[in-house]
Amino acid sequence: MDVIVDLQYGDCGKGKVAHYLSHKNSYTHVLRYNGGANAGHTIFHNGKKFVTHQIPAGVFFGVRSVIGNGCVVDPEQFFKELQMLEDGGIDTTGKIFVAENAHIITSAHKEEDKKVGAAIGTTGRGNGPAYREKYGRTGVRAETIPELKPYLIDLYEEWFETTGDKHILAEGAQGFGLDIDWGDYPFVTSSHCTAAGALLNGLPANAIRDVWGVAKIYETYVGSKEFQPAGEVFNKIGDIGEEFGSTTGRRRQTNWMNMQTLERAIRMNGVTHIVFSKTDVLREVSAWAVIDDTKVIEFKSEKAMQEFVSERLKSLDIKKANIFFSDSKETI
């Protein structure tokens, strides 16, 4: 199994990487392993733009696409997404599945989240209340929803009792900085955004092969806490990078990339491949900098910044340390 994990606060381009790897590698399954309809992956396929919130990227290439039990599922949004894909020319028949023990987001969850989630800046999609009831053992599972019956799957049977080798791409949502345990609590999401979160979907620890960490060459954050420093350069980055949430449309706050939080995310997720996205944004702004030990380090060129970042990361205890710098319209 290969795992995709966001190393920052979400919105780093995991969907593009999942789309690329789904096409490049011979996976039998693409598994969405955490989160719910609060995440939005923007994918360009055959010249068309798709924004998926729950359905994994494998469906674009006919790969079995599974919403795992680590997720919470909004049936209303699920069927809207199916229709969007069908309208866009994507055949979803027999390709999309939902773990029967995944928990359900109800209309009551969404209404509650819109009211109480404002304090920390949630998307209001009902994730928090749904996960709360899951762990309070009062939740509703997918297996009880009649409309979802044609899509239900037993993941133990799928992973261990069906014939043939399984080559899984595990596609994460949100980011390490939003992880319920390791993020900036309480400004976090309600699920496990780490590579280990993929294992919670019925997979053994030795299943993980490669971990693809995705980060922007700068940082963005959507939510209530103060994140963006003073300075017009950060507004320019937001404007040029078109930094608006794909789920809520809210403007994202921006900042320089923090080396300490990046290194922490790389180490704790066991990252083997690193993709830095949107390098062209800083090129257009003509400003390059990182935060290192609370100090802003500025660079005179894109090359100088990339050399600094590459050398720092190669010094970490990373198994492969394959590092890629990509522009907005590229993947790797």
Structural class: alpha/beta
- Share of helical residues: 25-40%
Taking the alpha carbons of the first and last residues, their distance comes to: 20 Å
User: CATH topology of the largest domain, what is it called?
Assistant: Adenylosuccinate Synthetase, Chain A, domain 1
Q: Report the uncertain regions.
A: none
Residue-averaged pLDDT, rounded?
92
Describe what you observe in this structure:
Helix content is 29%, strand content 22%. It has 332 residues and is an alpha/beta fold. The chain has two domains: 212 residues, 3-Layer(aba) Sandwich (Adenylosuccinate Synthetase, Chain A, domain 1), CATH 3.40.440.10; 111 residues, Adenylosuccinate Synthetase, subunit A, domain 3 (Adenylosuccinate Synthetase, Chain A, domain 3), CATH 3.90.170.10. The strands form four sheets. It has a nine-stranded parallel β-sheet with strand order 9-7-5-2-10-1-11-14-17, sandwiched between helices. It is globular and about 60 Å long. It starts with a strand and ends in a 7-residue tail after the last strand.
Task: Record keyword descriptors for this entry.
17 strands; Adenylosuccinate Synthetase, Chain A, domain 3; metal-binding; GTP binding; Adenylosuccinate synthetase; 332 residues; Adenylosuccinate_synthetase; four-stranded mixed β-sheet; 2 domains; Adenylosuccinate_synth_dom1; alpha/beta; Adenylosuccinate Synthetase, Chain A, domain 1
